[in-house]
Design goal:
Elements (H helix, E strand, L loop, with lengths): L12 E5 L2 H4 L34 H8 L7 H5 L3 H15 L3 E5 L2 H4 L10 H16 L3 E7 L5 H7 L6 H16 L6 E5 L4 H4 L1 H5 L11 H26 L4 E7 L2 E4 L4 H23 L5 H8 L10 H7 L4 E5 L3 E4 L17 E2 L15 H15 L3 E5 L17 H20 L3 E7 L19 E3 L11 E3 L1 H11 L6
Parallel strand pairs: 1-2, 1-11, 2-3, 3-4, 4-5, 5-7, 6-8, 7-10, 10-11
Antiparallel strand pairs: 8-9, 12-13
Helix pairs in contact: 4-6, 8-11, 11-14, 15-16
The chain binds 6-O-phosphono-beta-D-galactopyranose.
6-O-phosphono-beta-D-galactopyranose binds next to loops.
């Protein structure tokens, strides 16, 4: 019998997740170099779309470097976690977190990415953070690269499009694995590795305008190949340093449905699910899946590999698979025959009449999470870890300071319920770190007002506010969920 028929296992990692570039701030303090995230611009409200993804080009970067564009408030200042980590971790401990996902900002350790020696102050900062977590028995889950490529690697090498970056990354990985070997057990190599296909700049510091005569797809799959090899080599290095370390990959999982039972729609949904799961297929099985051969041929994509790459991928697959899950999508071969959904970036995406959407047009689908987990469990037979999930929403602060975020509780409660079902189905799920336990800067919109937290941060979209922290209603709710190991939702 499945040992978890009753729900969450006793050692389940309940937590919250962040990324350095969205919380730390202190972009030029402690010897840190600039990263790609530090260049992401502020976009005035009147010019914002629902999910304006920022595709930065070389021209834009030049302007920022020359000082012609100065307002880069959001990502450079975050919510000042760099200076407030003790206060924040104390609040997370009060919340009862068993695990806290954070990323190391690569440019705090190697300011230019290709430096000969690491930056001692950067290493010390993360030592302090890990020690603080240890004080409260909170397990750190550490991402090596969460949309924070050192800018100088972009300027000198065009980021992950260049094979040379593999060596700089493995040196960085080796440095932090050695340094934190007795403090950090769970690592993630690349956050949402499939993001590189949507935004090569965000996912890999790649400026596509620097590679004329190639399509975005040709460029991004080549860059992804370099990340696969780097991730496999990092896995090798970690296990040599400490065999107890667990190395995971990370996918932005979008469960995709056919909007009708027309076999053409079904085939399209299958194809889009494959394109999404391609990244975890490589990480988990150590080889390129055959279904990509045809896709690559039809899109004139030829991955340049070096001798030995295939062996490296095969020899060092990941120990576990982590994913973010926010929404599902529905597709149709004839999208014009259906209602379109506002926030959807995927081609052929249409509205699913059974689902509501968030204020940013993301289709809310708790059952899709169970479906995804079952599917990924069957496909990989490796432990799964949900390292992001949550509702971006506008919060209202009442006169007495309270925040009644029932919509957030409702979203999380329904998703956790479906996780429980998936565990009863037999899925090996080791943890759940909801996104942004403390309000942070949004990735896709650079807004502060798109909030995910249990902990409110007093700051607005223009960067005004006291930065004071306060507890929302969801704080007390999640505290109860963790305290009862998910039996009271
Ligand atoms: C994921 C990213 C996070 C995060 C989250 C929410 O794609 O890994 O960095 O921000 O999405 O997205 P957003 O901030 O755009 O609402």
């Amino acid at each position: 019998m499945n040992k978890n028929m009753n729900g969450f296992p006793a050692n389940f990692l309940w937590g919250g997740a962040t990324a350095a570039n969205q919380v730390e701030g202190a972009y030029n303090i402690g010897g840190k170099g600039l990263t790609t995230a530090d260049m992401v611009p502020y976009v005035p409200k009147s010019e914002r779309g629902l999910n304006f993804a920022i595709d930065v080009d070389s021209n834009y970067i030049e302007k920022v470097l020359k000082g012609e564009i100065q307002d880069t408030y959001p990502k450079r200042y975050g919510v000042d976690f760099y200076h407030r980590y003790k206060e924040d971790i104390a609040l997370l401990a009060e919340l009862g977190l068993k695990a806290f996902r954070l990323s190391i900002n690569w440019a705090r350790i190697f300011p230019n990415g290709d430096d000969a020696e690491p930056n001692a102050e950067g290493l010390q900062f993360y030592d302090n953070v890990f020690d603080e977590l240890k004080k409260y028995d909170i397990e750190p889950i550490v991402t090596l690269s969460h949309y924070e490529t050192p800018l100088s690697l972009t300027l000198k090498y065009n980021g992950w499009y260049s094979r040379e970056v593999i060596g700089f990354f493995t040196k960085y990985a080796e440095t932090v694995f050695n340094r934190y070997s007795d403090k950090v057990k769970y690592w993630i190599t690349f956050n949402e590795i499939n993001m590189i296909g949507h935004s090569p700049y965000t996912g890999g510091g790649v400026l596509i305008d620097k590679v004329p005569n190639k399509t975005k797809a040709q460029i991004s799959y080549q860059a992804a190949h370099h990340q696969f090899v780097a991730s496999a080599l990092a896995t090798k290095i970690a296990h040599e340093i400490n065999p107890e370390m667990k190395i995971g990959c990370m996918l932005a999982r979008t469960q995709t449905y056919p909007v009708t039972n027309n076999p053409d729609d079904v085939q399209l949904a299958l194809h889009q699910n494959d394109l999404n799961l391609f990244y975890t297929d490589v990480h988990a099985t150590g080889e390129y899946p055959v279904y990509m051969n045809r896709y690559f041929a039809e899109n004139n994509i030829v991955i340049e590999k070096e001798v030995g790459d295939d062996e490296i991928l095969k020899q060092y697959p990941v120990d576990y698979i982590s994913l973010s899950y926010y929404m599902s999508k529905s597709v149709a071969v004839d999208p014009e025959k259906h209602e379109v959904v506002a926030g959807n970036l995927v081609s052929n995406a249409v509205k699913n009449q059974y689902l509501d959407t968030s204020d940013w047009g993301w289709q809310i689908d708790p059952k899709g999470l169970r479906i995804t987990l079952r599917d990924m469990h069957n496909r990989y037979k490796k432990p799964l870890f949900i390292v992001e999930n949550g509702l971006g929403a506008y919060d209202k602060v009442e006169e007495d300071g309270s925040i009644h975020d029932t919509y957030r509780i409702d979203y999380l409660q329904k998703h956790i319920q479906q996780m429980k079902e998936a565990i009863k189905d037999g899925v090996d799920l080791i943890g759940y770190t909801s996104w942004g336990p403390i309000d942070l800067i949004s990735m896709s919109t650079s807004e502060m007002s798109k909030r995910y937290g249990f902990i409110y941060v007093d700051q607005d979209d223009e960067g005004n506010g006291t930065l004071n922290r306060s507890r929302k209603d969801s704080f007390y709710w999640y505290q109860g969920v963790i305290a009862t190991n998910g039996s009271e939702l």
